[in-house]
Amino acid sequence: MGQFILAAAAFFLSHTIPVRSSVKPWIVARIGAKGFGLIYSILSLVIFVWLIVATNRAPYVPLWEKAAWMPYVTISIMFVVCLMLSFSIARPNPFSFGGVRNESFEPAHPGIVRLTRHPLLVALALLVFAHLLPNGDLSHVILFAAFGTFALFGCKMINQRTRRKMSEAGKDYDALWVATRAGSLFSGCENSASVFAFIGGLGLYVLLLSLHGPVIGVYVWP
């Protein structure tokens, strides 16, 4: 249980400290926005894998029985999660963290940002639901409940911070969001970037399913 607590603390610290308004600009100034996004993504993935391994090693206390249909729900939702991640990474998004070249954001062509200001956090929330269902033991419920809380509160906190920063810069947050919501979700879907994003999401999905057994110890292929 000690390793589980340590891994959980490392995960949440790594997702709060680097994105703070007083920390991220300092890092970006030294390694650039792309470097920050790459290193942050790799660090998050490594700590996430560590956290899952530590959760599986924690004492097993069952809360509900696992039904045969539950894993199928999980792998179906994870396909959506992988696509959301792929279409979100390296996309301009002035409303949330993780966006690059935000000055080039076009509200008329927002892509996935039209659906949600925080696609990465929404993907995390979907991942939580997908994995909570077939993992009804105490350590997993604690883990995924914490993830869900993190995602929900993270959206609210980022909204408040972004609204404040835009106001200080003389920009209208609400007007930009209204224009974004009126933009086209599918514009540019036939260009090469969107094709590569879809292929990247599909590749990530296959990779995660393939590594889930060897790395985490649970084989999820039907």
What is the gist of this entry?
The chain has 222 residues and is mainly α.
Give me some keywords for this one.
222 residues; mainly alpha; 0% strand; globular
Main pleated sheet? none
- Rg (CA only): 18 Å
> Terminal Cα separation, in Å?
31 Å
Arithmetic mean of pLDDT: 82
Number of helices: 7
Number of strands: 0
What form results from the Cα inertia axes?
globular
- What share of the residues does DSSP label as strand, in percent? under 5%
Helix content: 55-70%
Structural class: mainly alpha
Sequence of secondary-structure elements:
HHHHHHH
Regions with little confidence, pLDDT below 50 for 5+ residues: none
Topology:
Elements lengths: L1 H13 L9 H34 L12 H19 L30 H14 L5 H31 L4 H9 L10 H25 L6
Helix pairs in contact: 1-2, 3-4, 3-7, 4-5
How would you sum up this structure, described in words?
The chain starts with a helix and ends in a 6-residue tail after the last helix. The chain contains seven helices and no strands. It is mostly helical and 222 residues long. The chain is globular.
